[in-house]
Write a structure and sequence with these properties.
alpha/beta; 5 strands; 5-stranded mixed β-sheet; Nucleotidyltransferase, domain 5
Length: 291
């Protein structure tokens, strides 16, 4: 990324005017800062970790390719969030996520109580290989989006309303009854793949039913990452595509760094979530409080 392009990005995204000389002096130092940030020690225990990926266009061997930017956000016992890392790979896959999880272990993470993930095949197995005790929660928002891909545009709203009976149920038993009713109803007859998708992910859908509804809002979606991704996407759209991985890392790191500074308060539901986790996870959560 050229000095002029970086200056343009800062002006467009943040209204900041920076001299070309300053950009030139700083840009290489950013990569050193990224490397130090990527290798910094982490907390021993995270009650929650959100794992997700978004796509960016990066030039690679004279071709512009869609690459996956993998992001991990950890939530500490006090409810404070931090970005644990940023990784670039050609494809989002369970094997790569296993590498990421092993890297987190090498940086000091001993336990993750609950991991919130998208519906990537093999993801639960990858998490279990690195952190055997971690409960895995599928992001309901991702699952709903996937479900809507099977429905026609005019049917999406009523299908979403029908599926809400499943994830808004009182508990896992009522949720399974609601799913069975959906599978026997007209929408499943029209779009059989939707019910099958929910059945395949069922063991990763139900963990959040152990929590009251006000706490589920924290757990059943990767909103913590979605909000961050929207900032990253704005930066990516302004660029079009990046000339190499380093250029993407530099800009996205700067956006992440700015976003982290805006995270001042934990979500209002966190006090209730802590009380619930203390009961559900016992000493594992207590260790996170002490750390």
């Amino acid at each position: 990324m050229s000095t002029r392009e970086i200056t343009g990005h800062l002006r467009e995204l943040y209204g900041i005017e920076v001299s070309a000389d300053l950009i030139s002096a700083v840009t290489d130092a950013v990569l050193e800062e990224v490397a130090a940030w990527q290798n910094r020690p982490l907390e021993a225990v995270y009650p929650l970790v959100f794992l997700d990926a978004l796509r960016v266009k990066i030039r690679d061997e004279s071709l512009v390719r869609n690459k996956a930017i993998h992001i991990a956000i950890g939530v500490r016992a006090d409810g404070a969030k931090e970005v644990l890392g940023l990784w670039i790979e050609q494809n989002e896959g369970a094997k790569f996520w296993l590498r990421v999880l092993n890297e987190l272990k090498n940086r000091g993470v001993e336990d993750i109580l609950l991991a919130v993930v998208d519906g990537l095949k093999g993801f639960p197995e990858a998490i279990a290989a690195a952190f055997p005790e971690t409960a895995v929660q599928t992001c309901i928002v991702h699952l709903l989006r996937h479900s809507m891909e099977f429905a026609s545009w005019k049917d999406r709203k009523p299908v979403a309303v029908a599926l809400k009976q499943v994830y808004d149920a009182l508990d896992d038993k009522e949720a399974e009854k609601a799913l069975a009713a959906f599978e026997e109803g007209p929408w499943s007859r029209k779009y059989a793949a939707i019910g099958k998708a929910w059945r395949r992910a069922w063991q990763e859908i139900i963990p959040f039913f152990a929590f009251p509804r006000e706490v589920r809002r924290i757990l059943y979606t990767t909103n913590a990452i979605e909000a961050l991704n929207s900032k990253l996407r704005r930066a990516v759209r302004a660029r079009g595509h990046f000339p190499n991985d380093d250029a993407a890392l530099k800009l996205l790191f700067l956006v992440l760094n700015r976003a982290e500074k805006e995270w001042k308060m934990p979500p209002r539901e966190w006090a209730a979530a802590k009380a619930q986790m203390a009961v559900l996870f016992g000493e594992r959560f207590t260790k996170a409080m002490i750390a």
